[in-house]
């Protein structure tokens, strides 16, 4: 095998997703993932601590970083709610062209309790980071925590709808807008 493997993380992700879909998460080994990706086991461990992390993009900082960077880039004059919803929309737009791999990943997660737990931990980390970003924008507690947790719930609900049984082909951002609109409608009722 060559000493330098272009797009090793991408190839490892695709190989893992294929194998997890074919054999199940528990029945798949790191060696099989590396072999399917055309890399060495050592290359696998340069990118990921274990096979679980392949599905989560490494330690998770990159995913969390998408949310924090987008919130930090929001116009300071925007209301916290607008900045947060804009953040969700911009992050959702990063999933363009990733519908089928996202659906396959979701099916793998749904079949394994430990992976679902890891997904919840990842999303809790996103909520903590968004809460910190809102506090930097001057939002106090408990408002920052509630808004951040709600934003994560909106994103997660939209994501599950997006990867679920197809009703119509729409992008993730459209689902985020729909779920956020539903939340506004419910909160508007007293």
Describe the structure.
- It is a single chain.
- This protein has 190 residues and is mostly helical.
- The protein has two domains: 47 residues, Arc Repressor Mutant, subunit A, CATH 1.10.10; 128 residues, Orthogonal Bundle (Tetracycline Repressor, domain 2).
- It contains ten helices and no strands.
- The longest helix is centred in the middle third of the chain and has 24 residues.
- It is globular.
- The N and C termini lie far apart (64 Å).
- 27% of the residues are buried.
- The mean pLDDT is 91.
Average residue-wise pLDDT: 91
Measured between the Cα atoms of the first and last residue, the distance is 64 Å
> What is the fourth-level CATH superfamily of the largest domain?
Tetracycline Repressor, domain 2
- How many strands appear in the DSSP assignment? 0
Task: Give the count of helical stretches.
Answer: 10
User: Poorly predicted ranges (pLDDT <50, ≥5 residues)?
Assistant: none
Report strand %. Answer: under 5%
Radius of gyration: 18 Å
């Amino acid at each position: 095998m060559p000493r330098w493997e272009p797009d090793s993380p991408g190839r490892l992700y695709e190989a893992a997703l294929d194998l997890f879909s074919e054999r199940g998460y528990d029945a798949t080994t790191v060696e099989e993932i590396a072999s399917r990706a055309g890399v060495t086991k050592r290359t696998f461990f340069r990118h990921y601590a274990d096979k679980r992390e392949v599905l989560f993009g490494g330690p998770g900082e990159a995913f969390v970083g998408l949310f924090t960077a987008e919130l930090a880039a929001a116009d300071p004059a925007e209301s916290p709610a607008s900045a947060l919803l804009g953040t969700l929309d911009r992050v959702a737009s990063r999933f363009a062209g990733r519908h089928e791999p996202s659906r396959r990943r979701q099916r793998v997660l749904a079949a394994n309790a430990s992976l679902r737990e890891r997904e919840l931990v990842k999303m809790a980390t996103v909520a903590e980071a968004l809460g910190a970003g809102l506090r930097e924008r001057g939002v106090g507690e408990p408002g920052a925590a509630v808004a951040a947790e709600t934003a994560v719930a909106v994103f997660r609900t939209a994501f599950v709808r997006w990867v679920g049984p197809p009703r119509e082909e729409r992008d993730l951002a459209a689902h985020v807008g729909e779920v956020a609109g539903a939340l506004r409608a419910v909160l508007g009722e007293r």
